[in-house]
Amino acid sequence: MSDPQTLNVLFLCTHNSARSILAEAMLNHMGRGRFKAYSAGSSPRENQSPNPLALATLQKAGVSIDGLSSKSWDHFALPDAPQMDLIITVCDNAAGEVCPIWPGHPATAHWGYADPSEKQGSEAEKLEAFMQTLLQIKRRLDMFINLPAASLDKMVLQNTARGLAAS
To answer: Which parts of the chain are coiled coil (predicted)?
Structure first.
């Protein structure tokens, strides 16, 4: 682990505009210094930025959006990038892609969520889809951050994180 006090977690999705952004912000909000979350995309669009509905949902939930940006996962495979302890894919597309070789060989898991940005309907219906996704992420993160320290040991971390995918 990069710092014995802090576990670095990278959330991956295809465009890094909705689910991975929600997960990054929520874990940083809930993590109480034990966790540092990041997010990235396997293929963010040119000039990609976080989905405005994701940002609005986070603000409505009282979660800071400071510093959130869409970026390629290549950013985290560089030698000077923070070393990750756990990498979690949050969309099925990114889960099936060939990932870079991550420095330190972190644990990996897949926590799939439906893409709220694909919701059709009124603005209120779209916002509700983002809120439901955020609540699903929060429920899983509640369990994750409350795990005993022994469950966060590198050898146990991967199995623990993958087990939460069923939650």
So the answer is: none
